[in-house]
Specification:
With 428 residues, this protein is α/β, with parallel strands linked by helices. It is 43% helix and 12% strand.
Length: 428
């Protein structure tokens, strides 16, 4: 039986529907005025706006749509007190629906920055989770809130493995539907460590999430029920960039947790960007190149800040601040080396069944080229120095399969097992 949406879900979706209708109306008005301009008809009081009766019609559509959206929001709010006991009972009846979690995660990946800016109830806070329980939350001010569940945990290890998901994903997607065990499950069982999962709004700028993650990790280490002996971080796709960003901001703030971090592993991380996002950027440029198609460029610009950060792999505020993220430009990042004092590993994937220079370079895992995942760059200061024995290419594997591919699991066990020796739980 499907779990019905909560009042917050309904309210958030209603707001998005309202905003989508208004934006399509604005696009239509822009096209209308573009055509009229070629006939010598003047614009309205703003660029792309019509005037006279036509302008009145478009303004009426926008106003009515806004009023309807406001009415829906108020109606849902009015019924919420009645519905809340039922919704709470449904929530408490069992674990969270993977389907809802996947939908919300995808929505945050595509529109997360907008959801945050508009205060939409569908935006995801950053949370750290152990065995599905939230143990720490990042608040709107960028501070860590330690949940009661953290202090109540027993049977935990002093060796932690942090799992960072990628764009549009969530912490429940680290396993295949055909397998009951994930990378974290195998590491926890074989290496006697405690997996910690993150869930976050992947549509925000990576640097914003990186700064918050750095703060949460310090609180996690400080508040962990037993002394933390080691921390390993595994990041898939955007998650690898998020980890590098957190290392940067931790060092900038003088936080101590990086000194306890022994290993960092990136899986299919676009360290130097993804050609697909750069292609999306070209779509913006092409659509914006003529008067008639310029209004449609707004559709291409629905991509979140997190997505556009993947164009070249932005991990610092300076990589995107004071720049139009939809404007065609080259790679303006400041070179950022791998974190010092931490053993760094990387795993790339190729859909080719065996090594092939052309497919590795062009296709890679379907989303990220092998060279980008391995940190390779033709400019020396941008090249990431992963040692040869700490690199691995998984062939016959696409980007998402890195989340659960058995060859990846075995490589993680080989690399990380020596770090977790003697990690038996100190709290029973």
């Amino acid at each position: 039986m499907k779990k019905p949406p909560s009042a917050a879900d309904l309210r958030g979706l209603a707001r998005l529907a309202t905003e989508a209708t208004q934006n399509v109306t604005r696009i239509a008005e822009g096209v209308h005025q573009s055509v009229w301009s070629t006939l010598g008809m003047p614009e309205g009081d703003q660029p792309g706006k019509t005037r006279g009766i036509t302008g009145l019609v478009y303004r009426s559509v926008l106003d009515i749509t806004g009023a309807v959206g406001w009415g829906i929001d108020k109606a849902i709010s009015g019924f919420e007190s009645t519905l809340q006991p039922l919704l709470k009972a449904i929530d408490e009846a069992g674990p969270e629906s993977p389907q809802r979690a996947a939908m919300i995660a995808a929505l945050n990946g595509v529109l997360g920055d907008h959801l945050e800016a508009s205060g939409n109830a569908l935006q995801l806070p950053m949370t750290l989770r152990v065995d599905g329980q939230i143990v720490m939350t990042g608040d709107a001010q960028g501070q860590a809130i330690v949940e009661d569940e953290l202090g109540a945990m027993t049977g935990v290890s002093g060796h932690l493995v942090l799992m960072l998901h990628g764009l549009c994903m969530n912490d429940l997607q680290w396993r295949s539907s055909k397998s009951s065990q994930s990378h974290a499950d195998r590491l926890g069982a074989a290496d006697d460590c405690t997996p910690v999962h993150i869930r976050y709004n992947s549509g925000r700028h990576i640097s914003q999430n990186g700064r918050l993650l750095a703060t949460l990790l310090q609180s996690l280490v400080d508040e962990w029920p037993v002394p933390v002996r080691s921390l390993s971080i595994i990041g898939h796709s955007m998650g690898g960039l998020l980890a590098r960003s957190a290392f940067h901001y931790a060092a900038e703030a003088g936080l101590s947790w990086p000194s306890q971090c022994k290993a960092f592993v990136s899986l299919g991380t676009p360290h130097h960007g993804s050609p697909l996002e750069r292609a999306g950027n070209w779509v913006d440029v092409i659509l914006g190149s003529t008067r008639h198609t310029a209004p449609f460029a707004k559709l291409g610009q629905l991509r979140s800040a997190g997505i556009t950060d993947l164009r070249f792999g932005n991990i610092r505020d300076e990589d995107w601040q004071d720049r139009d993220r939809f404007e065609r430009s080259g790679d303006t990042r400041t070179a950022m080396p791998l974190p010092a004092g931490i053993t760094c590993y990387t795993i790339a994937a190729s859909t080719a069944p065996r090594p092939r220079a052309i497919s590795d370079r062009i296709v890679g895992d379907g989303l990220v080229p092998v060279a980008s995942a391995l940190g390779q760059h033709e400019e020396g200061d941008r090249h990431l120095e992963f040692e040869p024995d700490k690199q691995f290419i998984c062939y016959g594997c696409h980007h998402m399969q890195l989340l659960y591919h058995p060859e990846v699991t075995e490589k993680l066990l080989t690399w990380l097992a020596p770090l977790h020796a003697g990690g038996k739980a100190l709290v029973e």
